[in-house]
Design a protein that fits this description.
With about 575 residues, the chain is α/β, with parallel strands linked by helices. The chain has 22 helices and 16 strands.
């Protein structure tokens, strides 16, 4: 490649300015890989290094603009104009940035901001609560922390990680320090507008936020304490909280940040536990809370399926579906250099935490490698294993049958992994800005059944919603997982001793049916089924039937598409 190759170089910098068109860059660089000298020729490294140099400069420029956009969204005018001390904390609870009010007022206990950026919190319980929020152990919602020993309250907003790099990507939590009379109390009208509560409940909640005492609030309203307790209990049920403290926290938090740009939220709470090494592991639960526990893992990208679609059926079948969030997604702490085989202890820790012994595991797509390795390395972890459209080890891949986009990525990766990472960073920005455009391009290379899923407005909206929710710690985890799939797993899958149910679509154009059959042939005690005309996203059509066979439930109703899937004989 010559430096005057204007088409390729121009496309690189054009994509940095307009990342929505990243697929065109992918196509251009793929074409370039066919014209450059082979790896074993003397000039090959020079050509690659020149291209990498241009890509690195383009990514730096894109990251700078990305950082400005994210900073504008994060620190909008509301944050800047708020009169209270504001702190931006990194992972170590070090103050990265603060406003003028923080520098002027946080000079002594109970909250002291030291010149080197260290934050000294005199109340040990308050400090531990703040650390829990900053570690994501308390979830991603706005939280109000109040000291029992000093007149100080902390309003904490966990921040979605930016993929831009630099300072903005290190921000974990924004904290406002509210003291005594400076705490803002939401009006009854605003509370009623925000929450589905009655006028009487909003008046009582307003006073409870202002005074903090239920008896005094009841007296000011000239109602009995019994009536006040009944109203508070009703409001707690409507807001799905378990205590008066949580109720006040939600009310106060919304009063201060309701005009902030909305982040990705979920009506299903993301639960968390802290592992022995200090990492946070999170999970979602669906169905019957007292039902039969079933573990599940979702796809590469952490966006499929949306289990809310199956909530009623789970309850009817008495199933408690536990979706484990892999490290780097959602609130689960990322693990650098993680391999598929490293996840087994985390699953074991969650089972102990939930007091579950040998549950079934049902894994989809990119969750398959983690489930397979865990079953091989910890024989007593599951009592059975289900795989649906699973990713396969690299030695089973039919690389010549990939869809065009994934084939181009693979071609670039094999030319030089650095090319893949750099183009991937531009691609992620494009996907975040215009996810509909990406899925529209992807659909063109998939089978008709998959095109129907991506062409369904409701399913596409759910996919994008869950994708944004999953990438709370940034979308770079997708690149990490893709790289993880390009080398051996270093686990002997023949050691799996539990029965395996494995379903795959015959028209899957990302993981071919031949790849799936090759993996199935290497697994002991496997029941394999293939489905004509079905592809990568067949999960929405077969999930009930798949779980029914895996768990030996009663026969489900016909699939959402109206077609019952016949039993197919396994060739193994």
């Amino acid at each position: 490649m010559q430096d005057d190759n204007d088409d390729l170089i121009g496309k690189i910098y054009e994509t940095a300015l307009s990342p929505d068109d990243w697929v065109e860059l992918l196509d251009t660089i793929t074409g370039w890989t066919y014209t450059t000298p082979p790896k074993d020729t003397p000039d090959a490294p020079v050509h690659v290094e020149r291209l990498i140099g241009h890509l690195e400069r383009a990514v730096r420029g894109s990251s700078y603009m990305h950082a400005l956009e994210d900073r504008t969204q994060l620190l909008n005018t509301m944050y800047d104009r708020m009169p209270w001390p504001m702190l931006m904390l990194d992972q170590e609870m070090h103050v990265m940035e603060c406003n003028l009010a923080a520098r002027q007022t946080l000079t002594r206990e109970p909250i002291t901001l030291l010149p080197d950026g260290q934050l000294r919190v005199a109340d040990r319980e308050l400090k531990q609560s703040l650390k829990r929020v900053n570690d994501r152990a308390g979830g991603r919602h706005t939280q109000l922390l109040t000291s029992r020993h000093a007149a100080v309250t902390l309003l904490c907003l966990p921040v979605k990680k930016s993929d831009a790099g630099g300072t903005i990507s290190r921000v974990r939590t924004i904290v406002w320090v509210l003291a005594g009379q400076n705490v803002v109390t939401p009006s009854p009208e605003s509370l009623k507008a925000i929450f589905p509560i009655t006028h009487a409940e909003s008046r009582l909640l307003h006073l409870l936020c202002k005074i903090g005492n239920l008896n005094q609030s009841a007296a000011l309203l000239s109602i009995s304490v019994h009536t006040a307790r009944a109203q508070i209990k009703s409001a707690m049920a409507k807001l799905d909280v378990n205590s008066q403290v949580q109720l006040v926290s939600q009310a106060m938090g919304h009063a201060l940040v309701q005009t902030a740009p909305p982040g990705a939220t979920s009506p299903i709470p993301e639960r968390t536990m802290t592992l022995t090494d200090g990492r946070v592991l999170s999970w979602f639960e669906y169905g019957d809370p007292t039902g039969r526990p079933v573990l599940t893992l979702d796809n590469l990208g952490g966006a499929l399926p949306d289990h809310r679609l199956f909530e009623t059926w789970y309850r009817e079948q008495g199933l408690r579906m536990i979706l484990i969030v892999r490290p780097g997604y959602g609130l689960s702490t990322a693990r650098p250099e993680m391999e598929f085989r490293d996840f087994s202890p985390d699953i074991r820790a969650l089972c102990r935490h939930l007091d579950i012994e040998r549950p079934p595991m049902a894994a989809y797509c990119g969750g398959g490698p983690y489930a397979l390795c865990s079953a091989a390395m910890d024989p007593d972890l599951f009592d059975r294993l289900g795989l649906l459209s699973s990713t396969v080890p690299i030695e089973h891949f039919e690389l010549d049958k990939l869809d065009p986009i994934h084939a181009m990525f693979l071609r670039i990766f094999r030319k030089d992994p650095r090319l893949f990472v750099l183009v991937g960073r531009l691609a992620l920005r494009g996907m975040q800005r215009s996810p509909e455009k990406y899925f529209s391009r992807l659909a063109k290379s998939l089978c008709p059944e998959d095109q129907a899923v991506l062409g369904n407005p409701d399913l596409l909206a759910r996919l994008i919603e869950r994708m944004k929710l999953s990438h709370f710690q940034g979308a770079r985890i997708i690149i990490d997982e893709y790289l993880r799939m390009q080398h051996p797993w270093y686990v002997d899958l023949s050691q799996i001793s539990v029965p395996v149910t494995y379903w795959h679509g015959e028209d899957d154009r990302i993981i071919s049916i031949g790849s799936a059959r090759s993996l199935a042939a290497s697994l002991p005690n496997v029941s394999f089924r293939s489905f004509p005309d079905q592809g990568r996203f067949m999960i929405y059509k077969v999930w009930k039937a798949f779980l029914t066979e895996l768990l030996e439930l009663s026969s489900p109703e016909e699939s959402p598409g109206g077609t019952a899937f016949p039993a197919l004989t396994s060739p193994f």
